[in-house]
Specification:
- The protein is of the alpha+beta class.
- The radius of gyration is 24 Å and the shape is elongated.
- A hairpin with a 2-residue loop joins strand 2 and strand 3.
- It contains 6 helices and 3 strands; from the N terminus they run H-H-E-H-H-E-E-H-H.
- The chain has a 3-stranded antiparallel β-sheet with strand order 1-3-2.
- It has a domain of about 70 residues: Winged helix-like DNA-binding domain superfamily/Winged helix DNA-binding domain (Arc Repressor Mutant, subunit A, Orthogonal Bundle).
């Protein structure tokens, strides 16, 4: 799967809520209906998108289908995002240094009271 496919899948808030719900373990569609508060056909449509993006796996347990998280696509997305996080961290560090260099010293209120 591509990063674009994963990003498109997780752009929708309901899909992120589904991923949150299955992060700690398998859930049936019925469980997800209760947790998310959406009708079964809507949950099933979102699960199909997540499955197509490689973000969930499904296994049959008798009549139920149990969904679980596949973390690999998210790890790949995290690796792709790492240089951007580093760039922003460097920019914020540079801003902090600039502000420290250019900040004017201020007098504390305690020393102002002593001079009065």
């Amino acid at each position: 799967m591509t990063s674009t496919t994963v990003l498109e899948a997780i752009a929708e808030p309901t899909r992120r809520r589904i991923l949150d719900a299955i992060r700690d373990g398998e859930r049936s569609v019925g469980d997800l209906v209760e947790i998310i508060g959406m009708h079964q056909p809507g949950i099933s449509r979102h699960l199909k998108v997540l499955r197509d993006a490689g973000l969930v796996e499904v296994r049959r347990d008798a009549q139920r289908r149990l969904y679980r998280l596949r973390a690999q696509p998210l790890m790949e997305l995290d690796q792709w995002l790492e240089p951007y996080r580093l760039e922003w961290s460097n920019r914020l560090d540079n801003l902090e240094r600039h502000l420290e260099r250019t900040a004017k010293p201020t007098m504390s209120t305690d020393s102002t009271k002593e001079k009065s």
